[in-house]
Amino acid sequence: MSVPASAVPAFDFTSRLSRRAQTMSASAIREILKVTQRPDVISFAGGLPAPELFPLEDVRRAADAVLTRYGPAALQYSTTEGHPPLREWIAARHGIPAANVQITTGSQQALDLLGKVLIDEGDTVLVEAPTYLGALQSFQPYLPTYQEIPTDDEGIDVDALEALLARTSVKVMYVIPNFQNPTGRTLSLDRRRRLVEITARHGVPVIEDDPYGQLTFTGETYPSLYELGLERAGGVEGNHVIYCSSFSKTLVPGLRDAWVQAASPVILKLITAKQGADLHTPTLNQMIITELLPILPRQVDVVKKAYGERAAFMISRLEAEFPEGVAFTRPKGGMFLWVTVPGDIDTTPLLARAVERKVAYVPGSPFFAHGGGKNTMRLSYTSATPDQIREGIHALAGTLRDALA
Amino acid sequence: MSVPASAVPAFDFTSRLSRRAQTMSASAIREILKVTQRPDVISFAGGLPAPELFPLEDVRRAADAVLTRYGPAALQYSTTEGHPPLREWIAARHGIPAANVQITTGSQQALDLLGKVLIDEGDTVLVEAPTYLGALQSFQPYLPTYQEIPTDDEGIDVDALEALLARTSVKVMYVIPNFQNPTGRTLSLDRRRRLVEITARHGVPVIEDDPYGQLTFTGETYPSLYELGLERAGGVEGNHVIYCSSFSKTLVPGLRDAWVQAASPVILKLITAKQGADLHTPTLNQMIITELLPILPRQVDVVKKAYGERAAFMISRLEAEFPEGVAFTRPKGGMFLWVTVPGDIDTTPLLARAVERKVAYVPGSPFFAHGGGKNTMRLSYTSATPDQIREGIHALAGTLRDALA
Predict the structure, then answer these.
(1) Tag placement on chain A: N or C end, fewer CB within 10 Å?
(2) Within an 8 Å CB–CB cutoff, is residue A21 touching chain B?
């Protein structure tokens, strides 16, 4: 049966949408990125892990192995909490009980479910300025009020945080301490300790989002807020930090496997929320990820070496080519760096000029809860070849020089 | 690092939970089902598809084939809307544009996202009495008010629906027309037409949940509400019916692949909501399902033949063994049948007696939005052998006879 689309009066769904749906708009970034997907454009806009590094043959073998080992159970419904061996492996890393781990369908689901169980309309949620755009999208349906905390090269400004907590009632704080998306910055150890101390003292739960922590270029790592919270509280149930991480940036993203670790009252509500949200993360996928755990250290080495080289090369080209007055971060891990151009340049309209020169980036503004940062942009170095980096940064430098002239 | 759990003051997360989280309780059924998972108990309680019918080797070949054909793209992030060939195949079945199809991580996610974009706190949602427990769980976080519509052997009572719509402002209606979960009943053709007509006239969107429609034992099928809505409106955008279906009951459940088809304003909001909820349904899984589409008709034949035989045998044993005064449905498809015992027997406490006799069922009460139906139970025949059906129904009949005595 084929029906003509024209001349049919549309049903008025728009007036039936929930209030929250009316606040949800297709991400600006998503629309922008569509233009940048032309094959002749060198794009530093995407945030995709480098596909040529994916352990494709290992995944093939793992899929085959788990289908043999588990048979139809690999394709059956499974428990909401997650595949027990995967939960146990995750729990063992921090010496916590597996009962404090919930598997999620990507970190994005972790953020959605945490928003669902924690945020009431109008609740104040603290975020970094800038922060991960996708977190803002996950929380938005629960209609929070955002308070932005300024950041600098050491990450979130803890003095500003302390001042704000002294005068504002805050429901929850969201922070990405390692190689932050979008800035590539890392929260310093001293600030980590103070952040954990201050938020604990004010009774403010902290959602720590850590997809990139293992991808350190220098080998240097800091304890997670979760670990500091565990140490401070003396145990899992006293820890006010909720930790989210993922296999998307270390193994593969398309299987959608991530997790949350937290105190029991949070996990118990996440289980119920997840039952209603998707019953469980796909069974086969969790089994494949579990099967790949032995190659995780090798895979992390491969990825961090490649990204480290690409970041270093991009930074060297930025140093060589970018005009005076343009600043950029020098990330020690992760997937992104952050460019700040002089204040009178707006990077959103500038993108059209860049695309004319066959290069693309993400304008920084959507990463600010209150829409600041008009003179910023995010560059990803993860999936570009040296030639693309050389050529793309040359074109972007030209775009910036024109804008500055 | 291992930390002692004892003697640590717990962080007070409970007082930080959202209001909606406070209304979300671990499903009663889930707790009940734990008791019934003892290997010595014959369980008619689960709602699991029969795993021995899964096309395990086809899945293995499909996984291998798509990893070869798509390479790393099978493991990369992909679009929120879904794998294009899968959307196109689904759209073609109803002759609608692929743009009107959204892939979801199981039907459960479809219900969650539809709740998110349609339901405001206090909105009236119409549901059948009884209805799918999981839908109640999906909608609950959006804090609706449920109005129940009575049902009989032809499905929902359309006169009662009409009377209710005449006096109540209703936001959305949720209905499972084919081989309903939990009753196994099918909405008659005449009532389908009237339901579509009445709800359209009152401007009430209808969510049609159809996971079981293909599993017809008799070959008889009715047009879906979606098809009737399409016919009535003359096109996709005028159709007030939102259709959800799934590959979980026909191919395999553990890959979590399902879909929604609806008018554009709904799909556009679902895309945004899904971006925040899990970015996209796992890439590899959608490709595997697409690769399996050629075997879908064969697989549907296998499943409906097996379930049809199991249903017929269970019904024959119920007829032979159940005491006078106990009624049950005779489903013509799907996975469940519904038992009504005399009104003074409560099937929830009775379950303990049944488990003593090594048989389990699901008490019917949780399937009622307002908790009625204490004298009902759901039985699944999908994964039981003839011996288990014979023995289990004998034990259940004994339990009922004791209760009636």
Answers:
(1) C
(2) yes
